[in-house]
Write a structure and sequence with these properties.
Layout: H1 3-12, H2 16-23, E1 28-32, H3 41-47, E2 51-56, E3 75-78, H4 84-92, E4 97-99, H5 105-114, H6 131-140, E5 148-151, H7 154-164, E6 169-172, E7 183-185, H8 188-199, E8 212-216, E9 221-230, E10 233-246, E11 252-259, H9 265-280, E12 286-295, E13 298-305, H10 314-321, H11 325-334, H12 336-342, E14 354-359, E15 365-370, H13 372-379, E16 384-389, E17 396-397, E18 408-413, H14 417-430, E19 435-438
Parallel strand pairs: 1-2, 1-4, 2-3
Antiparallel strand pairs: 5-8, 6-7, 6-8, 9-10, 9-12, 10-11, 11-14, 12-13, 14-18, 15-17, 15-19, 16-18
Length: 449
């Protein structure tokens, strides 16, 4: 173990003995890699009377995601493949082992299955992380998907696209998120340029990209479908339409996520497709965040993560749909019978219009200051529930290329759509004034989801 990891251990991690001692006589559960919006899960479980232990799947933390908050946990462990972690968990007898973010999916599946807990199992665990295997499993179930190829050879990819006339096509990593490393390639030149960019990088989860997934381009509008399940009975807790922009180089960037009514014809078709897709991948327990495009031929899967949505904000979701996936996940594991009675096979209610705005920037340089007066003006807008400043003084800001490099996220909801739209337009008009920036050279920004 590296020197950095030993230092992190002294500050963050407990010994197995300490965790066993702390858990004695308590109702406890385990969250694996609860980065990003996984940070909302401990409080949700606490509201159900359950304390949580954090399990980090690798010695080094994931640096490009919002860190998990040590103060939210009863204890914290780092996974040791020598079997000692499994022995510790058997001693504390957790109620669940659940992934808090995608890097924890495989380990949570492995441990929950080994401990005889509610689980999605290990048989299709790899297909829930590897996007090639994911699409293969969903296609095998008879559901619509993109055509695809996995390769490290760019000329093989070019030939695959040319022979079948698959222009444009999509090139992306096998296991990442937030449009990280995703390129829409409209010709062979663009595909050749995308390959070294992907193979020469790591994923948002610190994994090496050794192969590229090339897929046929799905024409149509993309949507989010969020669910929480118990024993295959999924509650749909939101359908959102992605509003995206394409950069000149072919990179798609998020702009707005717009909440749909569950009775919207698009939402009805998406919900039906997603339920079948969850069955195909056996995501029968816990949260899932699914991305689907409605093509001219119908819905087709982009990808699914067995974890909560990256834009989860419990207070915001409570206002616009009356529930949130963090509290639903906690209920599903704390009181599964109650979840099934109240939410199983159900669908959310859209109580009022809602938008999540991921503001882009064209700024480049070092952040000198945040314009707090403007930030407060934004917060006072009638539909603004909250905003997330993703940069601070001393950070580097770069022109937005993906969700990671969007420096500002704003949550908006109100009883009338006109108020939400007016506030969005205002924020869009002032977004470049939130940060005061001094240009710098040859530095790379580190994004936080």
């Amino acid at each position: 173990m590296s020197e950095l990891s030993e230092g992190a251990r002294s500050e963050l991690w407990d010994s197995s003995e300490d965790v066993v001692r702390k858990a004695e006589g308590r109702a406890v559960g385990v969250l694996v890699d609860a980065y990003g919006t996984g940070n909302h899960l401990p409080a949700a479980f606490n509201r159900q009377g359950i304390e949580v232990i954090h399990l980090q799947s690798s010695p080094e933390p994931i640096s490009r995601m919002q860190a998990w908050d040590r103060s939210s946990y009863l204890g914290a462990l780092v996974y040791d493949p020598d079997g000692s972690t499994e022995r510790t968990l058997k001693e504390i007898q957790p109620l669940f082992v659940l992934p808090g973010q995608e890097p924890g999916v495989r380990l949570a599946d492995q441990l929950s299955e080994a401990l005889g807990l509610r689980t999605n199992g290990t048989e299709l665990s790899e297909a829930r992380r590897n996007k090639y295997k994911m699409i293969e499993a969903v296609a095998a179930a008879g559901l619509r998907t993109a055509a695809q190829l996995i390769t490290e050879d760019v000329e093989q990819a070019v030939a695959w696209a040319q022979v079948a006339g698959r222009w444009p096509c999509v090139a992306k990593p096998l296991s990442s998120a937030s449009t990280d490393g995703v390129f829409i390639c409209r010709d062979a030149e663009a595909l050749r340029a995308a390959f070294p960019s992907i193979l020469g990088s790591t994923t948002v989860f610190n994994g090496a990209n050794t192969e590229v997934l090339v897929q046929s381009f799905l024409e149509g509008t993309e949507y989010i479908i969020d669910t929480v399940s118990v024993d295959g009975h999924a509650h749909v807790c939101g359908v959102w339409q992605y509003e995206k922009r394409l950069l000149p180089g072919g990179k798609p960037i998020y702009n707005r996520d717009i909440l749909l009514s569950p009775t919207d014809p698009a939402a009805v078709a998406l919900i039906d497709y997603t339920r079948s897709m969850l069955d195909a991948l056996r995501i029968h327990n816990g949260p899932a965040h699914t991305e689907v495009i409605i093509t001219p031929d119908g819905p087709a899967l982009v990808e699914v993560g067995a974890r909560v949505n990256g834009h989860l904000h419990p207070e915001f979701h409570q206002q616009c749909i009356g529930t949130n996936s963090a509290d639903l996940t906690a209920l599903a594991y704390a009181h599964p019978e109650r979840f099934l009675a109240e939410y199983g096979d159900g669908v959310y209610e859209r109580r009022q219009p809602a938008v999540v705005y991921n503001a882009p920037t064209e700024l480049s340089g070092e952040v000198l200051a945040v314009n707090h007066a403007l930030v407060e003006e934004i917060r006072r807008r009638p539909s603004v529930v909250d905003l997330m400043l993703k940069r601070k003084p001393g950070d580097v800001i770069v022109p937005t290329l993906d969700l990671l490099t969007s420096p500002l996220r704003v949550f908006l909801t109100a009883p009338d759509a006109a108020t939400v739209e007016a506030d969005y337009r205002f924020i869009e008009s002032v977004r470049e004034s939130v940060y005061e920036v001094r240009p710098v050279r040859s530095r790379v920004a580190c994004g936080v989801v």
